[in-house]
């Protein structure tokens, strides 16, 4: 647990030095600052205009944030509950895999 807290504190310190250029929406969760930093870093590194991330535990939503822009032309920020534009689903894949990305269960 100490390692996670140390990493979260480091992420907050680094994100303060290198702020994310786009908007961040949703309620900040201090204990999950590492998720904020990771999303911001991924979007910046791969030049992705925006994305949303949510985490639930035992059916309860514990983290939901939007990062960057849903519509760059109109400067519309991604909201925590934003859904991406529908994509065609290739044969043999579930819509969930294409639409929302794969979800992981952590025990």
Question: Would you kindly provide a written description of the structure presented here, covering whatever features stand out?
Answer:
- The protein is of the alpha+beta class and 107 residues long.
- It has one domain.
- The protein is 32% helix and 22% strand.
- It is built from 3 helices and 4 strands, in the order αβαβββα.
- The protein has helices at residues 2-17, 33-45, 95-99, and strands spanning 24-25, 50-57, 60-71, 76-77.
- Helix 1 (2-17) crosses helix 2.
- The longest helix has 16 residues, at 2-17.
- The chain is globular and about 35 Å long.
Could you give the topology of this structure?
Layout: H1 2-17, E1 24-25, H2 33-45, E2 50-57, E3 60-71, E4 76-77, H3 95-99
Antiparallel strand pairs: 1-3, 2-3, 3-4
Terminal residue distance: 15 Å
Total count of strands: 4
Number of discrete domains: 1
Radius of gyration: 15 Å
The low-pLDDT segments are 1-15, 95-102
* Beta-strand residue percentage: 15-25%
Note the overall shape.
globular
Structural class: alpha+beta
Indicate the mean pLDDT: 74
Main beta sheet: 4 strands, antiparallel
Order of helices and strands: HEHEEEH
Share of helix, binned: 25-40%
Given the structure, what is the number of helices?
Answer: 3
């Amino acid at each position: 647990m100490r390692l996670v807290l140390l990493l979260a504190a480091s992420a907050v310190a680094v994100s303060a030095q290198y702020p994310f250029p786009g908007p961040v929406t949703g309620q900040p969760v201090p204990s999950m600052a590492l998720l904020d930093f990771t999303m911001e870093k991924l979007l910046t590194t791969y030049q992705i205009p925006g994305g949303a991330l949510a985490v639930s535990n035992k059916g309860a939503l514990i983290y939901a944030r939007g990062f960057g822009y849903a519509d760059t032309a109109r400067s519309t920020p991604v909201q925590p509950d934003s859904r991406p534009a529908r994509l065609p689903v290739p044969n043999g894949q579930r819509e969930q895999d294409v639409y929302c990305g794969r979800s992981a269960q952590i025990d």
